[in-house]
Write a structure and sequence with these properties.
Length: about 140
């Protein structure tokens, strides 16, 4: 593929990529449980794979903060409060979504684990999530 053709395809590829993460179309169609306006399990898995490839390619560190709901997901109100606490604490460039039915993940692009631990500490201070319910991983 020549350079001109690649540049011509770049905006199309970027649009296609961004459309994957534009919100939960599956949730709006009723196929998934309530997502609270964050990435669905499938969307976050795609984003995590993209971020891991980017980290391998660039050598940059990124982190994942995991929040275990430990049965809190049975209480829709408490889950909503936890999601709000997380989404109000993270940066605009961070990505929040479901890892599983009882686990939330926050993808911190370009953030080493020692700085991701700062986010975990802030979430703990909210009083909604305990230290035992948080973990930080390197992508």
């Amino acid at each position: 593929m020549n350079e001109a053709h690649r540049k011509q395809r770049a905006p199309e590829a970027k649009r296609k990529f961004l459309s994957l993460f534009a919100g939960s179309g599956a949730a709006r169609s009723g196929r998934l449980p309530q997502t609270y306006g964050i990435y669905s399990i499938e969307e976050l898995q795609q984003l995590l794979e993209y971020e891991r490839r980017r980290c391998r390619r660039t050598g940059e560190q990124s982190s994942l903060v995991l929040c275990y709901l430990n049965g809190s997901s049975d209480s829709e109100r408490k889950t909503r409060h936890i999601v709000q606490a997380i989404t109000h604490t993270v940066r605009e460039t961070d990505h929040v979504g479901w890892i599983s039915e009882h686990e939330l993940g926050v993808v911190l692009s370009g953030t080493p684990t020692e700085h991701a631990a700062d986010l975990a500490a802030k979430l703990q201070q909210s009083g909604l999530i305990t230290e035992a319910d948080l973990s930080v991983q390197r992508l």
